[in-house]
Amino acid sequence: MATRRSTFGKQDRERQKKARAAEKRERRHDRTSQPDTDEPVVTTDATPDQLLREIEVLHARFDAKAIDFETFEERKLELFTQLASLEL
Hints:
By secondary structure, the protein is mainly α. The chain contains three helices and no strands. It has helices at residues 7-33, 48-63, 69-87. α2 packs antiparallel against α3 (69-87). It is elongated and about 65 Å long. The termini are far apart.
């Protein structure tokens, strides 16, 4: 005979899931609203060596949890795009 799960347990899990999502959204919003002064500024006339160094710094900041994954991926894509355009 199969046992039925309590609907209260499911509702409780859903409430907790929504609360965690709201907290995560709030943290993400707080990070994006604060300007990041440590982030290196890339100019269009950067050399490949400078771009590679900035990629290293970006990886170090991500490893130190100074930036989130979304920011890391966006910035990495920008740097690799610039690097690829220089090598053409």
